[in-house]
Amino acid sequence: MDIALFSTSSLFACDDDASVDEETTETNQSYVERKHNFPGMELLIREFSFHQVNANLLWPGTFTFAEWLVKHPSCIEGRRCIELGSGTGALAIFLRKRFKLDITTSDYEDQEIEENIAHNCRANGISPVLPHIKHTWGDAFPATDPDWDMVIASDILLYVKQYSNLVKTLYFLLKSFKPSDGESLPLMENEQNGETPAGLPRPAFLMSWRRRIGKEDESLFFAGCEEAGLDVKHLGSRVYCISPKQAR
């Protein structure tokens, strides 16, 4: 796994920055705790000062994704969900509190990440804490028979060299899902404004992307998904739905 050695603030423009209060509690060399504004609630999130795979901070896609999901709740209501690249766990915590979503967090195989997500769950009244899976993209997935019908992520396209591994993991999770007997797979349907979907395929990968990288690098990921037999659809506001072709 490549290690990021640059300032996180250089990755996105000022208008993408999240609404963050001043540091509110204890600070030391390893982490800070800050209050972050999500739609309809405030969450207290512990963020590491540095992490080798950028699992330490909240990125702008987290907040724009939360706002988008609040506007389009039918996309996730009733789903069993797993989040890739959960980082601090803030988005998953928000979705559990706002929608009572059945959600599992996952990230790079690092005990500190898992412990920090658990800490943030407890700090925000999530008990028992959310289930968590340690997994490195491209490796054999720990759950051999996954049944999540929704995979989500925000701002995870930083490491271009990991795109093929990410696609491999996505393909496994999406193709492994089996609906229950008699359960149908709904088609993509449009809302009244004709712009964004009221319902998404099952299974599906729903991703928000707000970080700044080159368009050519960004397109490599979507091209890799298409080559793997996955459909890519832009839903607006830099939110994308990726699903197996036969699910449509």
TrEMBL record:
GO BP terms: namely:
methylation
What are the alphabetically sorted keywords of the record? Answer: Methyltransferase, Transferase
User: What InterPro entries does the entry give?
Assistant: Methyltransf_16 (IPR019410), SAM-dependent_MTases_sf (IPR029063)
Q: Name one GO molecular function term.
A: methyltransferase activity
Q: Which Pfam families match?
A: Methyltransf_16 (PF10294)
CDD domains, per database record? AdoMet_MTases
Q: Identify the domain of life.
A: Eukaryota
**Name by which UniProt lists this protein:** Methyltransferase-like protein 23 isoform X1
> What organism is the protein native to?
Tripterygium wilfordii
